[in-house]
Amino acid sequence: MLRKNPSGHLPDVAQSAFIDPTAIICGKVVIEDNVFIGPYAVIRADEVDTNGDMQPIVIKRDSNIQDGVVIHSKSGAAVIVGERTSIAHRSIIHGPCEVGDDVFIGFNSVVFRTRIGNGCVVRHNSVIDGLNLPDKFHVPPMTNIGPGFDLDSISKVPPEYSSFSESVVSANHYLVQGYKKLANEL
């Protein structure tokens, strides 16, 4: 469901994107080409800053926002999800933040006040809050990263996780095409 926010902004959704009918997309949200938005996802850009302004939430091309994901922004701050990025089931992406290109955010993870570099893999049940991750970092399951965390204690992304991330993007690209085709048949 596409909804206006109280400021009157309506989502801008590319024709080639697929949004599940149970998802809620509200306000100043930009969804680019071939994006998949899964069931019960909520993407909500409706808070303003102290000047009454807000930055958009942008989901760039070929990315997927899976079932039950929540993307929101505090006080009108920007949220950017890069190209070919996967946000897995029930994760929370809360602005201000930026998630780079070719990133995988695992199930039930939370990202807030950070920049996740290109090619990172954040495994399930992790929290990244207030510390930027450089490109190609691998965050093990159930890791909490914040100010003061020693990034040298975690490794770069192993090749098998990069290929897994690519396969998730590919599978969801197929779903966009399949669901769009079904919608045209009904």
UniProtKB/TrEMBL annotation:
Alphabetical list of SUPFAM superfamilies matching this protein: Trimeric LpxA-like enzymes
InterPro entries: Gamma-CA, Hexapep, Trimer_LpxA-like_sf
Protein name per UniProt: Carbonic anhydrase
Native source species: Bowmanella denitrificans
